[in-house]
Amino acid sequence: MWALVINPVSGQGKGARIGTHVAGYLSSRGVSYEKIIGRNAIDQVDMLQRFLQRYPDCSGVIAVGGDGLLHLVLQKVTPAQVPLAIIPAGTGNDFVRALGWSLDDVDSILSSVLKSKPRSIDLGLVDGQWFGAILSTGFDSIVNEKANTMSWPKGPNKYNVAIAIELPRFAPRHYEIVLDDRTISTQAMLIAVANGRSYGGGMLVCPEAEVSDGYFDVMVLHPISKLEFIKVFPRVFKGTHISHPAVEIVRSKSVTITSDAVAYADGERIGQLPINAQCIPNALATWMP
């Protein structure tokens, strides 16, 4: 028995369309599954929890949605040690990118799920919450805070508009960053603690991060002028920003960050700093190409 968890409103309705396709794919192959669509996020998580209690030895969970749904589902399947497959149907889909799947070939993911065994990968654990891709604080978190209050525009452009609003009034903050082997005390514009490589729909903030190496890649953007920031920012989509002298990347199994700031993980609000995160090896069973 599989759980098919669908967020129908993810990706501006893409979740409903792809969820229908996935259900048809499973049904046509005689795969037993229970569809889980909640009235809201809390209801959906409760339904998944009840499913896992009824079927503790289930084949796995197939989640159709974006990184927001991933974040919710991880909190339940990881402690239950149940395999998880993510079908990309959100705006960013950065966890699916980290696993190496094409965002346009759903059937390849489903075929792998039904025909092959899952592999173990690392997850981040920040103050009791699991995350798959990126934990961050600084300018991007401020942008997330702003974007979450905006009803227009829809989709990825909301993030760009929020950047335009927040950048003129943004100022770097002081951070204390405690790593495995050192403490960094610095002014910074942005700090990203990466299990996966990207966030924000393909921004390769830590392009060399690996989901199975037992370490975070920790990127610190030291203060630069706003004009320089505007010039450097587009390079993040190819990962070439890491050659800039203001960008520092270190590797660590644990990270504690203290500042007057907020943190986000997989696009979801974690809360005020200080935060403590650990990279947990082999925490999740999933499928990779």
Would you write up a description of this structure?
The model has no long low-confidence stretch (mean pLDDT 94). The radius of gyration is 19 Å and the shape is globular. Strands 6-5-16-13-8-9 form a six-stranded antiparallel beta sheet, with helices on one face. Helix 2 (41-54) runs parallel beside helix 3 (67-80) and helix 6 packs across helix 7 (157-166). The chain is built from eight helices and 16 strands. The chain is of the alpha+beta class and 289 residues long.
Provide tags for this entry.
single chain; six-stranded antiparallel β-sheet; globular; 29% helix; 289 residues; alpha+beta
Break the fold down into its secondary structure elements and pairings.
Blueprint: E1 2-6, H1 14-28, E2 33-36, H2 41-54, E3 60-65, H3 67-80, E4 84-88, H4 94-99, H5 106-115, E5 119-126, E6 129-131, E7 134-138, H6 139-147, H7 157-166, E8 173-178, E9 183-188, E10 190-194, E11 216-221, H8 226-232, E12 247-252, E13 254-258, E14 262-265, E15 268-272, E16 275-286
Parallel strand pairs: 1-2, 1-3, 3-4
Antiparallel strand pairs: 5-6, 5-16, 7-10, 7-14, 8-9, 8-13, 10-11, 11-12, 13-16, 14-15
